[in-house]
Task: inverse folding
C-alpha cells in the first residue's frame, strides 16, 4: 500500500496544526458558527443529533494493521468503544468531543491517516473496488490511480468551495464493484484498440433525492491526462453549477440541464486550454505510485492440495462450508483467497465494529493477510490475501471474534445508514428496521435459498444507504412528524446499474418485516429455476409484488 | 484609512469600490469599476486611475486579455462559500496573463487565504473586525502542496 514520504507527512501534520488553531479560535468565539462549519466539515466533523461525529478518511478502503490498532485506541480513548464503516469505505466515530478532535487528528497523522475532505462541498474520498489488486477480472489495479487522485484532490486550491459535495470512484474491472455509475465522476480503466490503458469517464451519476445514472462523456482518456481532465470537469462545474439551491447543486443537475453532450463539449473546450501543461502526469510519477501496489511476495501454496483439504473440512463442518460459499472470493493467485469478514451479525448495527474487534482483525490481518485490511462500501471488511490452507484456522478465529456470519451478499448483509439514531439529516431511523429484518429472517437456510439479494436502507432521501440501487430498497420518510418507510424494488449496483421503482404508499416501521416477507414470497412463488430475485423482478415486473403487498385482507 | 493585507503585510488602502448600480460622476479617487460599468462606458472612460471588480457570477472570459489594462482587478466573494472566485483568479492569472494586483473582496475569510494565494490573489480586503496581522499568518498554513496553481506552476511530482 502507499507509504507517505516526507511531503505527504508534512502536509497532514500541517493540517492538524491548522485545524487546532481553527478550533481554538472557534472556542474563543473568534470564528462565527457559519464560518467554522465548512472548516470542521472539511476535517470530517459533523454536529449530530447527540454528539459530534468524526468521519475518518480511508482512501479507497485500504488500511494496515497498525492503522487498525490506532482506530481501536481512538475508539477506546475518545469514543464509546466502537466505530462504524460507512457506505463510502470511510470510518465514523459517533461520540468524540469537539475539543479533542485536534488530538484525534494528531494521533491519526502518526499512522498516515486523516479526516481531510470527508465532508463539505469539496472533493471527497475516492472509492474503489474492495478486491482491487487481487480480483481475477481486473484489467489493471485501480488503487495507484486512486492515490494519484487523492494527492491531486487534497487541498486543491480551486475546488474547496464547490456548489456541493463531489465524489469520485475508480474501477479496474468490466463488472462494476465500485458503483462508478452513481458517482459525480466514475472512472473505468479501459484499453483502447492500440492496447494502451486509459479511462472511460462518466459524469453526473448520483443517488440522493434525484438519483441519476452517470453519462459517458469520454470513451478513452489517455492516462497521462487524468488530472488535467479532472481539473477541466471540476472547473466547469465550479463555474457553472447551481449555487442558489443546494438541492439542485450537484453536478448531475448541471449535466442533465445542459445535456451530457453539451457538458462534454464544455469540458473538452476547457481541457484544450490546460492539457499540455505541467499538470499532466509523468511516467515517472505514475510508476512511483504504482511501485507501492506491486504484487506482494506470495508464498507458493498448492491449490489442489488446499482445495482437497477444504472439501474435507467442509464435509465435517457445515457452518464452515456455508462460510466458504458466501464469504470467500476467488483470488488471482492460485492457492489464495479473499475473505470478507461480515459486520452484519443479527443485533448489531450494520457496519459497527468494537475496539476489541478492531484489534482482533488487526491480528488476523498480520497473521493471515500480509497485514492489510480493506473496508467495503457494503460496510464489511476484507482480508484480501489469505492462503487457502489458512482458511479453516482463520474461520475459527473470525467466528470467535463475531465476524464470521456467513451472509455476504444475502438478505441479511444489508447496507444501512446510521439513520435517525445518530444522523441529524435523517427523517427516520434505519438501524431498528435492519435489526427487525435480521430477527425476522434469522433462518439461514431460508436466507441461502433466496440467494444473492441486496437490501439497502436509507433513513432519508440523501441515500447514504444506497436504497435506490438495492434489489429491495427501503427509504425512511417523515409524514407529519411520524416515521414511515417507502419500499423500492429492482435496483442494482452491478455493471447494469439500475434504479429501483417505488412499490407504493409507505409503511409503518412495525409493518416492515411482514411487507418484506410478502415481497420475498412473491419471488419464491414466481422464480424459475435458479433465477435470482432481480431476474424474477425484471421478468414479472412490479405489479405482482404490489398486488400481494397491498392486497386487502379478507 | 481602510487596511488590507497585501503581499503578506497589513497596509493602508485607498481604492474605492464603485457599486454596480452607480450612475453620475465618478469620484476623484482610485476607483474599482464594476465590470458592467466598464463594458458600458469603455469608449469614454479614462482608465488612468481605475481598477476593475467583478462578481462571482460574472464571466471572466468577457474581460479576457483586456485584463492587463488594469493595475488591479478585484473579485467579489458574495459569501465565503461561493467558490467561483477561485476559478476566476486562476483564469485571470493563468489564461489571461494578468500581471497586476489581484484582490479578494467581500466575504472571503482568513481560513481561505492560503487557497486564495495559490489561485493568484495577492491582496485581501477582509471583513471589518478581523485581526489582519493574525490573519496574515494563515497565508502560510501549508509549506508543501501537491497541485499546480498560480504560485506553483509545477505539481509536486515535477518540482526538484
Result:
Amino acid at each position: 500500500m502507499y507509504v507517505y514520504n516526507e511531503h505527504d507527512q508534512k502536509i497532514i501534520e500541517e493540517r492538524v496544526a491548522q485545524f487546532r488553531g481553527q478550533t481554538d479560535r472557534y472556542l474563543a468565539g473568534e470564528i462565527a458558527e457559519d464560518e467554522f462549519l465548512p472548516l470542521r466539515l472539511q476535517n470530517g466533523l459533523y454536529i449530530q443529533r447527540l454528539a459530534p461525529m468524526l468521519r475518518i478518511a480511508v482512501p479507497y478502503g485500504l488500511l494496515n494493521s497498525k492503522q487498525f490498532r490506532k482506530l481501536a485506541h481512538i475508539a477506546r480513548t475518545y469514543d464509546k468503544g466502537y466505530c462504524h464503516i460507512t457506505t463510502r469505505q470511510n470510518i465514523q466515530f459517533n461520540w468524540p468531543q469537539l475539543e479533542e478532535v485536534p488530538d484525534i487528528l494528531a494521533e491519526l497523522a502518526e499512522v498516515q491517516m486523516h479526516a481531510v475532505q470527508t465532508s463539505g462541498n469539496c472533493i471527497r474520498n475516492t472509492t474503489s473496488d474492495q478486491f482491487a489488486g487481487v480480483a481475477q477480472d481486473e484489467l489493471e489495479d485501480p488503487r495507484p490511480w486512486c492515490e494519484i487522485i487523492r494527492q491531486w484532490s487534497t487541498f486543491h486550491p480551486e475546488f474547496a468551495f464547490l456548489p456541493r459535495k463531489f465524489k469520485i470512484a475508480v474501477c479496474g474491472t468490466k463488472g462494476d464493484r465500485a458503483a462508478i455509475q452513481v458517482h459525480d465522476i466514475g472512472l473505468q480503466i479501459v484499453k483502447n484498440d492500440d492496447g494502451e490503458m486509459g479511462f472511460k469517464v462518466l459524469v453526473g451519476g448520483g443517488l440522493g433525492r434525484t438519483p441519476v445514472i452517470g453519462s459517458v462523456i469520454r470513451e478513452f482518456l489517455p492516462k497521462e491526462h487524468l488530472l488535467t481532465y479532472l481539473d477541466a470537469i471540476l472547473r466547469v462545474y465550479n463555474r457553472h453549477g447551481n449555487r442558489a439551491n443546494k438541492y439542485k447543486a450537484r453536478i448531475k443537475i448541471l449535466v442533465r440541464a445542459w445535456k451530457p453532450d453539451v457538458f462534454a463539449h464544455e469540458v473538452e473546450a476547457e481541457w484544450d486550454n490546460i492539457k499540455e501543461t505541467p499538470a499532466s502526469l509523468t511516467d515517472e510519477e505514475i510508476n512511483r505510485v504504482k511501485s507501492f501496489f506491486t504484487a506482494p511476495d506470495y508464498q507458493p501454496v498448492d491449490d489442489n492440495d488446499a482445495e482437497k483439504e477444504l472439501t474435507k473440512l467442509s464435509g465435517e463442518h457445515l457452518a464452515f462450508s456455508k462460510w466458504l460459499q458466501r464469504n470467500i472470493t476467488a483470488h488471482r493467485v492460485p492457492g489464495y483467497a479473499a475473505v470478507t469478514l461480515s459486520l452484519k451479525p443479527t443485533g448489531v448495527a450494520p457496519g459497527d465494529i468494537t475496539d476489541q474487534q478492531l484489534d482482533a482483525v488487526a491480528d488476523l490481518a498480520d497473521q493471515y493477510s500480509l497485514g492489510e485490511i480493506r473496508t467495503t462500501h457494503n460496510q464489511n471488511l476484507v482480508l484480501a490475501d489469505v492462503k487457502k490452507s489458512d482458511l479453516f484456522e482463520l474461520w475459527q478465529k473470525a467466528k470467535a471474534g463475531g465476524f464470521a456470519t456467513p451472509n455476504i451478499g444475502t438478505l441479511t448483509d444489508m447496507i444501512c445508514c446510521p439513520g435517525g439514531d445518530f444522523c441529524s439529516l435523517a427523517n427516520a431511523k434505519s438501524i431498528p428496521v435492519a435489526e427487525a429484518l435480521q430477527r425476522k429472517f434469522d433462518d439461514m437456510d431460508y436466507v441461502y435459498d433466496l440467494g444473492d439479494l441486496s437490501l439497502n436502507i436509507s433513513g432519508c432521501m440523501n441515500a447514504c444507504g444506497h436504497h435506490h440501487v438495492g434489489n429491495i430498497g427501503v427509504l425512511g420518510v417523515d409524514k407529519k412528524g411520524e416515521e414511515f418507510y417507502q419500499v423500492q424494488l429492482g435496483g442494482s449496483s452491478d455493471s447494469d446499474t439500475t434504479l429501483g421503482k417505488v412499490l407504493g404508499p409507505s409503511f409503518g416501521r412495525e409493518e416492515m418485516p411482514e411487507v418484506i416477507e410478502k415481497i420475498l414470497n412473491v419471488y419464491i412463488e414466481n422464480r424459475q429455476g435458479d433465477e435470482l430475485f432481480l431476474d424474477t423482478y425484471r421478468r414479472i415486473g412490479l405489479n405482482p409484488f404490489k398486488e400481494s403487498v397491498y392486497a386487502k385482507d379478507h | 484609512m481602510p487596511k488590507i493585507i497585501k503581499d503578506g503585510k497589513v497596509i493602508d488602502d485607498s481604492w474605492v469600490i464603485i457599486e454596480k448600480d452607480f450612475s453620475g460622476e465618478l469620484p476623484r479617487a482610485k476607483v474599482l469599476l464594476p465590470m458592467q460599468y466598464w463594458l458600458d462606458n469603455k469608449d469614454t472612460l479614462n482608465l488612468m486611475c481605475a481598477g476593475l471588480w467583478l462578481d462571482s457570477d460574472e464571466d471572466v472570459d468577457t474581460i479576457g486579455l483586456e485584463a492587463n489594462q488594469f493595475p488591479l482587478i478585484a473579485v467579489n466573494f458574495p459569501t465565503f462559500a461561493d467558490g467561483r472566485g477561485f476559478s476566476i483568479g486562476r483564469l485571470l492569472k493563468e489564461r489571461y496573463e494578468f500581471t497586476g494586483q489581484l484582490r479578494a473582496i467581500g466575504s472571503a475569510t482568513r481560513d481561505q487565504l492560503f487557497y486564495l494565494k495559490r489561485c493568484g490573489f495577492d491582496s485581501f480586503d477582509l471583513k471589518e473586525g478581523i485581526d489582519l496581522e493574525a490573519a496574515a499568518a494563515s497565508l502560510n498554513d501549508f509549506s508543501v502542496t501537491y497541485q499546480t496553481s498560480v504560485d506553483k506552476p509545477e505539481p509536486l511530482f515535477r518540482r526538484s
Summary: Residues 77 and 106 of chain B are 5 Å apart (CA to CA). Chain B has a mean pLDDT of 95. Helices of chain B lie at 35-41, 60-63, 84-95, 113-118, 132-135. The first strand of chain B starts at residue 3 and ends at 6.
